[in-house]
């Protein structure tokens, strides 16, 4: 039996309707931007395996750091104990995060990073004896699949079975070009009519919505409105963090700072699950009290796992090299050239680029749903050609590892052009 056949017997895959889904592809090896399946077929990983892998698969530098940590101190509980790798991660992050971020809290994945931020926002007001329980989020947001993160998410595929069981969330439009004022007005209106605790957003790029982009000035204005009404702001940088937008964080483009930031995905270079939520001193101080009830009673067993911390430190080392920064610029320039070439194509609605993120919207005769037929046709075409891309409806996006070669990039572009001709 092949791995693919054995998989059937026991495994339940994410976001998968097993009755209609095709067999999963069993990957046995990865190197750089490439993956090989059990039959030796080669694939270009053009989405960095769900946006986690900037430095290439089976990266030796990160693997060495992990091995060294595993054979020194693989794990120790973080309640009542601490260790150098966690402290070093904090020190490193303080150097690169917006200056108002002063405290960091570890968890395991993007959803838990968001879960922590939302719980902290709600308890912050509880601790101050203020009744503020409404969360503000964007339309079509994606913040993860645990309950509070899911409540903040606006894509119905992920949340429809659970409507009516959520914390209070009110949505506002994303301030895409031409809709800025509508978004500002909606925010003012929500704040006036609800007891709002926080506003959570994906800064500049909504990943799961199909790489929807908006301008830093608009986000700055939304943050100002929140700040002047004492509504806490949460930048969910789980996707955008660590260089994807061309700067270390998407918030580096924005003149206003958020109160909290969520990090995961590329944090450990795609090796070990780990996440971090960061906070201002002011937020931390609202929990700092003689009263134990004001503490944050939240934690995960593997909090601040030293091996994960070692992977994060090695990843930050790699990100900050001149070579990696040059790679990010190279891919961005390449995307912009491809965008120029493709955006006038008769079957293209629009194309957009930010940092290493590129997206193109393809014309479709019918309303294209998230997992609709055009999407499946495109996906299968890409897989057949040996390129891993996961279209969102009629939107095809690229989010490559930063080490992807020019030749590999050209193959990805060419395959997308062929796909556009095909549909
Ligand atoms: C992926 C993602 C999450 C959820 O992260 P998981 O590790 O999958 O739980 C949250 N927010 C954003 C913006 C994401 O892209």
Tags for this model:
423 residues, 7-stranded mixed sheet, 4-stranded mixed sheet, 38% helix, 17% strand, binds pyridoxal-5'-phosphate
Structure description:
This protein is an alpha/beta fold and 423 residues long. It has 14 helices and 16 strands. The strands form 4 sheets. A 7-stranded mixed beta sheet has the order 4-12-11-10-7-5-6, with helices on both faces. The longest helix has 21 residues, at 322-342. The two termini are 35 Å apart. 42% of the residues are buried. The mean pLDDT is 96. Bound molecules: pyridoxal-5'-phosphate. Residues 109-111, 114, 142-144, 202, 207-208, 236, 238-239, 264 line the site of pyridoxal-5'-phosphate (PLP).
Quick one: how many beta strands?
Answer: 16
Structural class based on helices, strands and sheet pairing: alpha/beta
Q: Total helix count?
A: 14
N-to-C series of helices and strands: HEEEHHHEHEHHEHEEEHEEEHHHEEHEEH
Cα Rg: 21 Å
Structure summary:
38% of the residues lie in helices and 17% in strands. It is of the alpha/beta class and 423 residues long. The strands form 4 sheets. It has a 7-stranded mixed sheet with strand order 4-12-11-10-7-5-6, with helices on both faces. A 4-stranded mixed sheet has the order 1-2-3-15.
Blueprint of the fold:
Layout: H1 3-10, E1 27-31, E2 34-37, E3 42-45, H2 48-51, H3 60-70, H4 84-96, E4 103-107, H5 110-127, E5 134-138, H6 147-152, H7 156-159, E6 169-172, H8 180-193, E7 196-201, E8 205-206, E9 212-213, H9 216-228, E10 232-236, E11 260-263, E12 275-279, H10 281-285, H11 306-319, H12 322-342, E13 348-354, E14 357-362, H13 373-384, E15 387-388, E16 395-398, H14 406-422
Parallel strand pairs: 3-15, 5-6, 5-7, 7-10, 10-11
Antiparallel strand pairs: 1-2, 2-3, 4-12, 8-9, 11-12, 13-14, 14-16
Helix pairs in contact: 3-11, 4-11, 8-9, 12-14
Bound molecules: pyridoxal-5'-phosphate.
């Amino acid at each position: 039996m092949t791995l693919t056949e054995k998989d059937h017997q026991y495994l339940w895959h994410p976001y998968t309707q097993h009755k209609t889904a095709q067999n999963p592809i069993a990957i046995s090896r990865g190197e750089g931007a490439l993956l090989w399946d059990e039959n030796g077929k080669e694939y270009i990983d053009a989405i960095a395996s769900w946006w986690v892998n900037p430095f290439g698969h089976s990266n030796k530098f990160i693997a060495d750091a992990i091995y060294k940590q595993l054979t020194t101190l693989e794990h120790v509980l973080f309640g009542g104990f601490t260790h150098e790798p966690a402290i070093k991660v904090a020190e490193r992050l303080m150097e690169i995060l917006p200056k108002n971020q002063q405290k960091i809290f570890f968890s395991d994945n993007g959803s838990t990073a968001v879960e922590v931020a939302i719980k902290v926002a709600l308890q912050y007001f509880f601790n101050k004896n203020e009744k503020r329980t409404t969360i503000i989020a964007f339309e079509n947001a994606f913040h993860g699949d645990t309950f509070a993160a899911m409540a903040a998410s606006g894509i119905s595929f992920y949340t429809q079975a659970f409507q009516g069981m959520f914390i209070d969330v009110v949505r506002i439009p994303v301030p895409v070009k031409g809709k800025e004022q509508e978004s500002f007005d909606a925010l003012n209106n929500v704040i006036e009519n609800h007891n709002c605790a926080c506003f959570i957003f994906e800064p500049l790029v909504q990943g799961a919505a199909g790489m929807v982009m908006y301008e830093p000035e608009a986000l700055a204005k939304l943050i100002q409105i929140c700040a002047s009404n004492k509504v806490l702001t949460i930048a969910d940088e789980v996707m955008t963090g660590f260089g994807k937008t061309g700067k270390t964080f998407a918030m580096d483009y924005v003149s206003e700072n958020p109160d909290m930031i969520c990090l995961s995905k590329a944090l450990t270079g795609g090796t070990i699950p780990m996440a971090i939520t960061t906070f201002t001193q002011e937020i931390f101080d609202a929990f700092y009290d003689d009263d134990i009830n004001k503490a944050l009673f939240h934690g995960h067993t593997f909090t601040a796992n030293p091996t994960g911390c070692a992977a994060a430190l090695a990843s930050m080392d790699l990100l900050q090299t001149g070579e990696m920064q040059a790679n990010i610029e190279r891919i961005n320039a390449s995307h912009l050239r491809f965008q120029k070439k493709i955006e006038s194509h008769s079957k293209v609605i629009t194309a957009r680029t930010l940092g290493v993120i590129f997206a193109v919207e393809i014309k479709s005769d019918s309303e294209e749903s998230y997992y609709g037929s055009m999407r499946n046709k495109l996906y299968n075409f890409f897989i057949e050609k040996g390129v891993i891309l996961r279209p969102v409806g009629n939107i095809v996006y690229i989010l490559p590892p930063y080490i992807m070669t020019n030749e590999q990039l050209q193959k990805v572009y060419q395959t997308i052009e062929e796909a556009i001709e095909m549909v």
